[in-house]
Amino acid sequence: VIAAGQPDRTVKTTCAYCGVGCSFNAEMKGNDVVRMVPDMSGGANEGHSCVKGRFAWGYASHRDRVLAPMVREHITDEWREVSWDEAIVHAAERFRAIQDQHGRGAIGGISSSRCTNEEVYVVQKMVRAAFGNNNIDTCARVCHSPTGYGLKQTFGTSAGTQDFKSVAHADVIVVIGANPTDAHPVFASRMKRRLRQGAKLIVIDPRRIDLVRSPHIQAAFHLPLRPGTNVAVVNAMAHVIVTEGLVNEAFVAERCDTKSFAQWRDFIALPEHSPEATEAFSGVPADDVRRAARLYATADNSAIYYGLGVTEHSQGSTMVMGIANLAMAAGHIGREGTGVNPLRGQNNVQGACDMGSFPHELPGYRHIGDDAIRAQFEQAWHVALDAEPGLRIPNMLASATAGQFHGLFIHGEDIAQSDPDTKHVTDALRAMELVVVQDLFLNETAKYAHVFFPGTAFLEKDGTFTNAERRINRVRPVMPPRTGLSEWEIVCRLATAMGYPMEYRNAAEIMDEIASLTPTFAGVSFAHLDRVGSVQWPCTERTPLGTRIMHQDGFVRGKGRFLITEYVPTDEKSTRRFPLLLTTGRILSQYNVGTATRRTANTVWHPEDVLEMHPHDAEVRGIGEGDSVYIASRKGAITLHATVTDRVPPGIVYTTFHHPDSAANVITTEYSDWATNCPEYKVTAVEVRPGD
Ligand code: SF4
């Protein structure tokens, strides 16, 4: 796939790594890529790129890639290569047999935020129409599901409010639980440009991320909170805004539900929410919280950007609502340079959620229990749909362990490595009668699979990704599927083999169906995207060029709703036995569980996951730089090498999760967000001692 020499043609497509969604020109020689050149006209990147998108695409031709479908009876058997027809019929018959024996609800599916909107759409349609239940969930469950829930409750729509360009108008930038220079590098460059022009920066993160202090940038405030105290800190900032008369009264009166505001104001003004009351357990000096809150509230334009350090907590949804409360109280929403902006981890987290991958929501975030909405889909799909929401991923796994759930279709997600409490996940997979994995590689999850459908790399896909700013970008194939079938074709054939005929001539037809059933996508088609480049939804007849900034004249739900955000400490607490708190994150050169980047030259920059420890914590344990360390939690133990650094404060340790050997999720806990079950990856009580 990698060629030398002069290209003979160029195909414009979209990076398949992070939620920035950079556009690239794939310069081709025959069916081989010569190089990937960032596209100057790309709406998200305007000619910029990072080390992942520019260089880490060779995994598409890695020798580990599986190109033929495979089956096996037991997970201890050798894989047997078979034809597509045999693999699909085999999977369909076994899914059917499970349903005959255990009922319609005994099987389900997981869609992937790595795949195109069109692929995700057909997966959820297959589950609802062919499986006959709503047991469909997505890997967004374990990252940004609290964003979907929290923003819908407060603003009325499950999406970020701004486009990336808007940051150029921010006077104050607040970064909460995110590390943009590593995880969203091209957007981080835009942010840094604005900071170098004089915008002020507030970072709320236990770790001193690069943005806090980098060439020509110095954060005005770094609030190094103790993991798990997010809600207390955002409440304390809101307390300052309310009690010091900094509320934007005109905005609240005109744009917000004043009854909910009055209740919230009474709640947040209580002395227990003051910075002084929270300092002792959050670890953040009260004076810094006060001054940061004043800075945020009094600037002309303040914008909040947040990441998984907000969502992956037992109070992830509460924290998203707390951020929304803050933005509404200060009136920093609905115009350039403001807003509430989730930085999505994967390339198509936004799209996977938009496409109806949640067990309670059809495409466009419409509830499955709404009779009128369900009737619309039943008419279009010619099938009766179940009105009851289905199982979420954690519920499917728990039901499998309990012997009540028996078959799972897993599309492009390595749950055995990426989901928390690995033993719980692998026990559940082992308990199932049929696990079908559709992926590029025999990943950790495939060790527990009975059928393997080889998937396609982004270079072989035709469709769209939706990035963190709601931008729908075209993904164009630079070569035909090396496996012989597009991923949407595999899913359609499986649905058909199960008795529900699903046929499309091409991916464009799938998008046409999405547009016909999803009001926010009503104006989207491949032809339109090819004409205008990309659009940010809502894209309708009235807004054919999309919507850069949401909630400008009114919130999607009408009036913005304030919600009570009571701080409830997580059950995961440090103890004498486990005195340190572990938190996790990503590094620039690698991507998530590393399935793709580990199979490229990028791996030279980060060949292993390491444990960051404060010098004091290292010294008292007799641990030096590079030493092997043993890390134990209530759930298990792993071994890493130590990096001794004051980037982390005393009492906190930090690692990444890119390498299966280090298996960070062996030690993460079973706790999850109260509203969405998003796992609490960011807080694990551990003990660390010398590895020997
Ligand atoms: Fe790809 Fe994200 Fe890097 Fe852009 S910033 S090139 S989308 S990984």
From TrEMBL:
<dbReference type="GO" id="GO:0043546">
    <property type="term" value="F:molybdopterin cofactor binding"/>
</dbReference>
<keyword id="KW-0560">Oxidoreductase</keyword>
<keyword id="KW-0408">Iron</keyword>
<dbReference type="GO" id="GO:0046872">
    <property type="term" value="F:metal ion binding"/>
</dbReference>
<protein>
    <submittedName>
        <fullName>Formate dehydrogenase subunit alpha</fullName>
    </submittedName>
</protein>
<comment type="similarity">
    <text>In the C-terminal section; belongs to the prokaryotic molybdopterin-containing oxidoreductase family.</text>
</comment>
<keyword id="KW-0001">2Fe-2S</keyword>
<dbReference type="GO" id="GO:0003954">
    <property type="term" value="F:NADH dehydrogenase activity"/>
</dbReference>
<dbReference type="GO" id="GO:0022904">
    <property type="term" value="P:respiratory electron transport chain"/>
</dbReference>
<keyword id="KW-0004">4Fe-4S</keyword>
<feature type="domain" description="4Fe-4S Mo/W bis-MGD-type">
    <location>
        <begin position="8"/>
        <end position="64"/>
    </location>
</feature>
<keyword id="KW-0677">Repeat</keyword>
<dbReference type="GO" id="GO:0051537">
    <property type="term" value="F:2 iron, 2 sulfur cluster binding"/>
</dbReference>
<dbReference type="GO" id="GO:0016020">
    <property type="term" value="C:membrane"/>
</dbReference>
<dbReference type="GO" id="GO:0051539">
    <property type="term" value="F:4 iron, 4 sulfur cluster binding"/>
</dbReference>
<dbReference type="GO" id="GO:0015942">
    <property type="term" value="P:formate metabolic process"/>
</dbReference>
<keyword id="KW-0411">Iron-sulfur</keyword>
<keyword id="KW-0479">Metal-binding</keyword>
<dbReference type="GO" id="GO:0008863">
    <property type="term" value="F:formate dehydrogenase (NAD+) activity"/>
</dbReference>
